[in-house]
Design a protein that fits this description.
Number of strands: 14
Radius of gyration: 17 Å
CATH architecture: 3-Layer(aba) Sandwich
Number of helices: 10
Strand order of the largest sheet: 7-6-5-11-12-14-13
Shape: globular
CATH superfamily: Vaccinia Virus protein VP39
Structural class: alpha/beta
CATH class: Alpha Beta
Length: 246
């Protein structure tokens, strides 16, 4: 079996990933199995990332992966290395762009250095120095350590996808924005209303929702109104799917 080696740099360590089995090992070839990754809380979401990769592979290479809250590219880069076009929304894109260059995958990933929202405005991102829990809310970004303030602008995804003329090609959307998923979705209504098959995976953190005043039923109702159904996924996230209309 032919493997693709993917490298990543984070604040704390450098690691590599062998696709397609997603076996990870540290620099120096010291093996790290999935069990160790999960047990040691190195990358607890790695199994979900692998599942997204497998889901995307059911689509033709014309499909686009939209990664809202792309972080360092753990989902975007492996999918791009399979030959899919990726649009990565990341308001603090330094490590993401560095990892894209590291893997020589610039031709397949378009990085948008903004925060997605339901209105356009200038805003502040609160970014803990020693944590990846960046947020539009200082309360949600608290990590017990220093926080960096990053000035950015919000964008409406419907307008971005319309400008890029790719609304009908986006097949999988991942949204992980620390409690502001509903605001992102309100800026995606036109895209969600289109009759194309589409998968949307969003972070489903009831604690974050409570702090931002969002009722989970509102999110479910929004998807239902556009023909999506909730399908099984791991705890902590929710998958909504619209199948192709016959």
């Amino acid at each position: 079996m032919k493997y693709k080696k993917v490298g990543f740099k984070t604040n704390n360590f450098i690691f590599y990933m062998n696709l397609p089995d997603w076996f990870l090992f540290e620099r120096g070839d010291q093996g790290i199995t999935f069990d160790k990754l999960l047990k040691d809380d190195i990358i607890p979401e790695i199994q979900a990332y692998k599942k997204m990769h497998l889901y995307m592979n059911q689509f033709s290479k014309e499909a686009i992966f939209l990664d809202v809250g792309a972080h360092i590219g753990l989902v975007s880069i492996p999918i791009a290395m399979e030959g899919y076009d990726v649009i990565a929304i990341e308001p603090i894109p330094d490590m993401l762009c560095g990892n894209i260059r590291l893997n020589i995958i610039e031709d397949f990933i378009k990085v948008i250095p903004n925060a997605a929202y339901d209105i356009e405005k200038a805003t502040t991102i609160y970014a803990p120095i020693n944590d990846d829990c960046t947020s539009l809310s200082c309360n949600l970004a608290q990590s017990g350590g220093p926080i960096r303030l990053v000035q950015t602008k919000t964008i409406i995804l419907d307008r971005l996808l319309e400008k890029e003329d790719v609304q009908d090609r986006v097949r999988f959307i991942k949204i992980d924005v620390q409690g502001f998923e509903y605001n992102v979705l309100k800026g995606l209504k036109e895209t969600l209303a289109l009759p194309h098959e589409r998968h949307v995976l969003i972070e489903w953190d009831l604690g974050f929702m409570q702090k931002t005043g969002i009722d989970p039923d509102e999110i479910t109702s929004l998807f239902t109104s556009y023909g999506f159904q909730k399908e099984p996924w791991d705890a902590g996230d929710a998958l909504f799917v619209k199948r192709t209309l016959k």
